[in-house]
Amino acid sequence: MKSTFFMLLLALSMTACNESTRKIGLDGSAEKQVQRDSSKVAIADLPILIDSTDYLIHPIGYITDNSKYSSYSKKSHQKTYNISRYHNFNITGEFSNLKFQQLNSEKITALTDKIVEITSIRFLENIRIQTGRQYLVYTIRDLDTNNDAKINSKDFESLYISNINGENLKKISPELTQLVDWKIIPQLNRLYFKSIADTNMDGEFDKKDNLNYHFVDLDDNVMNVVSYQPI
User: Fold this and answer.
1) pTM here?
2) For the chain, how many helices (H) and strands (E)?
3) Exposed/middle/buried for 46, CB within 10 Å: 0-12, 13-18, 19+?
4) Partners of 58 in beta bridges
5) Residue 75 has what pLDDT?
6) I need a surface site. Which of 84, 94, 121, 224 has the fewest CB within 10 A?
7) Which residues make beta-bridge pairs with 131?
8) pLDDT at 117 (0 to 100)
């Protein structure tokens, strides 16, 4: 019992630590110029083909000695370079970009030309089954929200959506908010999500800050974001 309690306490303290490091600049801006790190070596994983789609997805990222997705084999003394994992319509990792390639074409196109960190991608399989529409939903760090001239785990995550080929990429969560959670309600063809804003500008999230509630109608090609108030 003691060991179980200790592990639970440790997990809670680690979570609290991670949240405390994700702070916005006290001036409410994200103004410092983020530069690409020329010392990092960009690599691509082998392409991913999601069932019932016609596009290869090439995850692009950086490899470093301490990357949690790289491994070292003592037996062979060689590194294996893997930056992504795919399971059950979800792609996880830390990516600087994604590139898309139609099955009958050699042309490869990039998702974005901006400096970002993509942390997860989900294919909306239940929406494909129900409507035939094919969407990808992303969590992306796209702004230097703590003004340290870097984009990393200390910055806010935003919610994005695109077509299966990466086209029509759109940010749907409000600017300068941290994504809290999102889900699909297939019966309504809606994507619901909530985010939090540092409304009192004290540099951290607490009960004095506002939670924002929104949904997107996935039947709407424009992807208009609708605010609602359940509280």
Assistant:
1) 0.82
2) 2, 17
3) exposed
4) 99
5) 46
6) 224
7) none
8) 96
3-state secondary structure of 125: helix
Q: How many CA atoms within 13 Å lie on the side-chain side of 134?
A: 11
Show me where the domains of the chain are located.
37-227
Please write the tens of the pLDDT for every residue from 48-66: 999 999 999 999 998 765 5
At 92, list the tokens. Answer: 């996880």
Residue 149 identity = A
Element (H, E) at 58: strand 55-63
User: Where are the alpha helices (H) located in the chain, listed in sequence order?
Assistant: 2-21, 125-131
Token pair of 86, please? 């795919």
- Confidence at residue 141, expressed as pLDDT on a 0 to 100 scale: 96
pLDDT in tens, 120-137: 999 999 999 999 999 999
CB-neighbour burial class of residue 91 (10 A; exposed 0-12, middle 13-18, buried 19+): buried
Q: Which residues, in sequence order, are CB contacts of 187 under 8 Å at separation 6+? A: none
Report how far residue 200's alpha carbon sits from residue 213's, in angstroms, rounded to the nearest whole number.
18
Among candidate residues 167, 158, 165, the one with its CA nearest the CA of residue 225: 158
pLDDT digits (tens, 9 = 90+) for 155-167: 999 999 999 999 9
CA-based R_g, the chain, Å? 19
* 206: CB partners within 8 A, 6+ apart: none
Largest CA-CA distance found in the chain, in angstroms, rounded: 59
DSSP H or E segment with residue 98? strand 97-102
Q: What's the Cα-to-Cα distance from 26 to each of 118, 147, 148, rounded to whole Å?
A: 25, 9, 12
